[in-house]
Design goal:
Strand content: 5-15%
Strand order of the largest sheet: 1-3-4-5-2-6
Largest sheet: 6 strands, mixed
Number of helices: 35
Radius of gyration: 33 Å
Number of strands: 18
Structural class: alpha/beta
Length: 710
């Protein structure tokens, strides 16, 4: 039985929960869930006892912290109910117990100076005497092997594959150079740290035993060089000494920036390194971001031919949680503020859901550090989940946490609000409203977009207007809508223009849109006109909520409602309406026709949350559209101090002039421009209508539109 579990059971007496809460480990764990001491005492006073022997019988004396926590949660209903009052389940309870016991284990292990792990970190005497001197290297860099620290568990899982590849490359006889790239700096340094740790512990492959990893300080090298000649002399001395030493792996961080800084001195770093790149006596490890590698380094022939590309995957999921747990302990020592476990879980989930998917661990650290002053400003010495969610909402503008009273009212009456802008189309309004409600209630799949819809129907019936209304009502502004005319993306260069070009380094339209406006509506007009490659791209976005741009960066689309529109099936929809049938009853017929004609494939249609048919606008619907357009025009004129009204007769005139079954409500705009706006503009120019005037548009006895100044 582990010592830490023994410390808990020591206090158990006749009740396991009591043993947990009375022990130092258990009390800290419950505090990290945000419970106060008085809440814990009140719970223990009223709870029924749980048997001590049950757990020994279940595990036959071999109990891990996670086992103990699971057993307790599953067998002590009163404890589970107590945790449920704060929204905590088994995941949170097991996680916090594991975190605190692991922290205690590490603290105990660090005190055991006589352990093998501690003794192995003490540098040996004379182990480098067989190799050359490195005093210049030590001036411009750091010997990481001498200061190797234990690798955090968070790095081990994500770095394993990359560090194994790195070992393989560095063990070659010649050309043993690598480019270790990732947009997440922690991922790069994590792989490097794991490599150094393996060398220091003696668990590296034989060819790399006794190697020393020197991390060059490029900034120091540039700062100590006054001109091109002194810089090249200093850099040459560094690499020459590294090569002569015979056991050096030279790691150069921010390699692209180093090259650019040297170029400002009219010097070429790659040209200086070239004579040493193929030397078996020196290994060079270039560290850089993926974007800089693809956009700057990979195009240089010498570099591309002699450096093996190794991508270090950023931490995610469990790895980020473990990293945050380690960072939280250090942060607590400096700030004297406790970090709750729900806050750590909230950070881990949020960085992958709400932010650009580059450098997720760096973003997670940033949020962790900023959450401390946020909690202090609220008068607390503990960071809660609410602090994290409020901070993320401030940073992104994306609503997090439970909806407030105003948002609750908006969500519950969302259909009514949408119908103020959208005439008819009950199916479309209900579909998008339901999707938004599921999203804010937290019941949707967080790894997919908020909602994906295909709007089918004739032109001018409100497909685009629905998207605009969503952006305005739900996301606060029509500016939150990104729009792509997919008819412009059907040539050979369509994909490059959409996700970017590796060759030119130019960013793609879709990539830029989602980085600049990560939360809103993405409208894909005339979706049927794009290429099959782009359709396949969106299949992945619909499934996973992400895609990869030309630089290899993952772009987040999870916080978007994606609406694709199409006129496909319009003729059949018209025929159904003319026959007097209900369009809802013939939906399968319309979809089957679209598939049969090869417009959309079943696998695409099945990826949408809903395929929505839009009705043609007729009769009373067109009158509603005319009234809405006049009201919108009236709002514009009120800004100039002019009040505009329209009688029922004027509305009927506009409907008559602005009706074209093939184009829906669009001709209505022209009717208002040619009638209402033209008459008013002439009178304003003549000086007969000024600020403070009130105007009424009516139909005369012959049914013509006239304007009356009231």
């Amino acid at each position: 039985m582990p010592f830490e579990i023994g410390r808990i059971i020591f206090y158990a007496d006749e009740d396991l929960a009591q043993g947990l809460f009375f022990s130092e480990i258990g009390f800290e764990a419950i505090r990290r869930l945000g419970f106060t001491e008085s809440e814990i005492k009140e719970f223990l006073k009223n709870k029924p006892k749980t048997s001590f022997t049950d757990i020994l019988t279940a595990f036959e004396g071999h109990i891990l912290p996670s086992d103990y926590a699971k057993f307790l949660f599953q067998n002590d209903k009163s404890l589970a109910d107590f945790l449920f009052t704060r929204g905590f389940g088994e995941k949170e309870f097991v996680g916090v117990i594991s975190w605190v016991t692991d922290k205690e284990c590490r603290a105990t292990e660090n005190e055991r100076w006589w352990s093998r792990a501690a003794l192995s970190r003490i540098p040996g005497i004379g182990k480098n005497w067989a190799y050359g001197e490195t005093y210049i290297l030590e001036r411009y860099g750091e010997d990481l092997t001498e200061s190797a620290a234990p690798i955090a568990a968070s790095f081990a899982k994500s770095a394993e594959k990359a560090v194994s590849r790195l070992e393989s490359v560095l063990s070659r006889g010649q050309g043993a150079n690598a480019a270790l790239v990732s947009d997440d700096e922690s991922a790069r340094t994590g792989v490097l740290a794991m490599l150094v740790g393996r060398i220091a512990s003696g668990s590296i492959i034989p060819n790399l035993e006794h190697k020393r990893v020197f991390l060059l300080n490029p900034n120091l090298l540039v700062e100590n060089s006054h001109d091109k000649i002194s810089f090249e002399q200093n850099l040459t001395n560094v690499v020459l000494q590294a090569a002569n030493a015979g056991n050096v792996i030279l790691a150069i961080p921010y390699f692209s920036s180093f090259i650019k800084s040297a170029a400002a001195l009219s010097s070429d770093v790659v040209a200086i390194l070239e004579p040493y790149i193929t030397s078996p006596s020196l290994h060079i490890l270039a560290l850089d971001s993926e974007s800089d590698y693809h956009g700057f380094l990979s195009g240089r022939e010498t570099f591309a031919n002699n450096f093996e590309l190794i991508v270090a995957d950023g931490e995610s999921g469990e790895g980020i949680i473990l990293m945050l747990e380690a960072e939280a302990i250090n942060l607590e020592k400096r700030s004297h503020v406790l970090i709750s476990y729900p806050a750590i879980l909230a950070i881990s989930e949020s960085v992958e859901r709400y932010f650009d998917l580059r450098a997720t661990s760096e973003k997670a650290k940033e949020i962790l550090f900023e959450s401390v002053p946020h909690a202090i400003s609220a008068g607390r010495r503990i960071v809660l989940k609410e602090d994290v969610l409020a901070l993320i909402e401030d940073k992104t503008g994306i609503p997090t946490g439970a909806p407030n009273a105003a948002e609750q009212g908006e969500l519950l009456h969302l259909e009514e609000l949408l119908h103020k802008r959208i005439v008819g189309q009950d199916e479309a309004v209900a579909a998008v409203a339901d999707s938004l409600k599921r999203s804010r209630a937290g019941v949707r799949n967080p790894d997919k977009p908020i909602g994906t819809f295909l709007f089918l129907g004739p032109t001018g019936v409100g497909k685009t207007e629905t998207a605009k209304a969503l952006a305005d009502i739900v996301f606060s502004s029509e500016e939150k809508m990104n729009r792509l005319d997919m008819s412009e993306y059907r040539d050979a260069f369509a994909m490059e223009r959409l996700i970017g070009s590796f060759g030119t380094g130019r960013a793609g339209a879709l990539s830029m849109m989602l980085r600049e406006k990560p939360y809103g509506v993405l409208l894909l007009d005339e979706f049927e006109k794009t290429t099959s490659d782009i359709v396949n791209l969106f299949l992945r976005i619909f499934d996973e909520g992400v895609f990869t741009d030309s630089d290899g960066r993952k772009i987040n689309a999870k916080n978007n409602i994606i609406i694709a529109t199409s006129n496909a099936g319009s003729e059949l929809i018209w025929d159904i309406i003319k026959s007097g049938s209900r369009l809802e009853d013939k939906k399968d017929e319309v979809i089957e026709s679209i598939i049969k004609n090869g417009i959309f494939k079943p696998e695409l249609l099945n990826r949408f949350d809903a395929v929505v048919l839009f009705h043609p606008l007729l009769g009373a619907d067109l009158e509603k559209v005319a009234k809405m357009m006049i009201e919108k025009f009236g709002k514009r004129m009120r800004a100039q101090g002019i009040v505009v009204e329209a009688t029922e007769g004027a509305i009927k005139y506009l409907v008559e002039k602005g009706t074209d079954p093939k184009f829906g409500a669009r001709p209505m705009n022209r009717a208002i421009e040619d009638g209402v706006e033209k008459l008013l503009a002439e009178k304003i120019i003549e000086g007969k209508i000024k600020a403070g005037s009130k105007i009424s548009f009516e139909a005369d006895s012959e049914g013509r539109l006239q304007m009356i100044v009231l």
